[in-house]
Amino acid sequence: MITPTQMRAARAMLDVPQGYVAEHLGIAANTLSKIESGQSDVSMSRMAEIQRFYEREGIEFLSNDGVAWKSGGVDTYRGRSGFLEFIMDVYETVKGGGSIFVNNVDEDDFLKWEGDEADAHMARMASIKGLQFKILVKEGDTNTISSGYAKYKALSKENFGEVPLYIYGDKTALIVFEEENVEVFVIKHFAITQYFIDRFNKAWAEAKEIS
């Protein structure tokens, strides 16, 4: 678990005020100040939430109070709680605008694991200004639940893959849906993400409009 020293160092690396971090965590700035100074007893879940925030921002926590910029690597999210963390990471990454490209999608899988958080997530995504959102589904699939803020096209069944690809910001996620589990592997690497964007754009150009 991260330490107050690491929290202060991570915030300094991002060059943001306490109010910025507190707002993203949904807590008061003076509460964060006490946590950073070690003057407040904090639950393990709150500490984990703070750590995840900084990790989403590209910070890596090392031993002996060390802090560094992530050089890349893979973040893994598992189960429903992990999947909800993943979709929140999507929102946090693009909430200021940007692009999302999704391939091999069956929206029923997303709805299953979002559960009762689905409506709130879609409302958050719909509120983003300047968002370009493109989704490729299998030909014949009529579930285009995100059409209020995303554009859909259809791939032929022979070109539709079994593993959903979710590109957002400079991150590429591969999602494995199973009956009793879901795993999301998020790669944060510019060159890899650009490679998958190029492949997506080619598939998008060949896909069919959905009437």
What keyword list fits this structure?
211 residues, alpha+beta, 434 Repressor (Amino-terminal Domain), Endonuclease, Chain A, 2 domains, eight-stranded mixed β-sheet, two-stranded antiparallel ribbon, 8 helices, 10 strands, elongated
Characterization of the model:
With 211 residues, the chain is an alpha+beta fold. The chain contains eight helices and ten strands. It has helices at residues 4-14, 18-25, 29-36, 44-56, 79-94, 107-114, 118-126, 190-206; strands spanning 59-61, 67-69, 74-78, 98-105, 131-138, 151-155, 165-168, 171-177, 182-188, 208-209. The strands form two sheets. Strands 3-9-8-7-4-5-6-10 form an eight-stranded mixed β-sheet, sandwiched between helices. A two-stranded antiparallel ribbon has the order 1-2. The longest helix is centred in the C-terminal third of the chain and has 17 residues, at 190-206. The protein is elongated. The relative contact order is 0.13.
Task: Give a summary of the structure in a few sentences.
The protein has helices at 4-14, 18-25, 29-36, 44-56, 79-94, 107-114, 118-126, 190-206, and strands spanning 59-61, 67-69, 74-78, 98-105, 131-138, 151-155, 165-168, 171-177, 182-188, 208-209. By secondary structure, it is α+β, with helices and mostly antiparallel strands. The protein has two domains: 4-69, lambda repressor-like DNA-binding domains (434 Repressor (Amino-terminal Domain), Orthogonal Bundle), CATH 1.10.260.40; 74-209, Endonuclease, Chain A (2-Layer Sandwich), CATH 3.30.870.10.
